[in-house]
What does this fold into?
Amino acid sequence: MFEFFAKYLVEKGGFTESELELVRQVTVSKKIRKSHYLLEEGKVSDFIGFVTKGAFRLFRKGEDGQEYTMKFAVENWWISDFTSFLSGEQSNCYIEALENSELMWFSRETWDHLIATIPNFRRMIDKLTARNFEAHQNRIFSNISEPADTRYENFVNSYPTLYNRIPLYMIASFLGITRETLSRIRKQAAQRKTTN
It folds into this structure.
């Protein structure tokens, strides 16, 4: 598992062998079974995970009892309730494994240690945070300004391997549409492909 993560660190952060060894010494690997939770509402998100295998989703429950998917994470993606992690306050989110999954697990202490002792780690995380913020803003703009079929098309184009791994009702929730609307959009898209 660490070899997968090490490759990512070299590609994204330019880590040296000695830096990789420092990370290896403090990193814990975890296996999570499908449908199990990494985090539940009311608990503090005291970890950050890097997915080496599998898929997760971060979601919240509305007052209506519905689940609202806010984020997915698959291989090479990070997962946590970052608001709870940074503030130390209780989370209002859940993180669920959608497949049998594996991740590299960083406690708050480990994370702070890596940020403080490895400059490449801090630089990499700063870049990822900026990209994540931009993606978050783009998603908000898309959800309030684009029609549902455009949102679905953008999702499929942006995450070509993801939409086949995630249940449709979760994708619909992520896109801010009903399952019925998503089914209609997918049917229309399939018809357009067969007529072209």
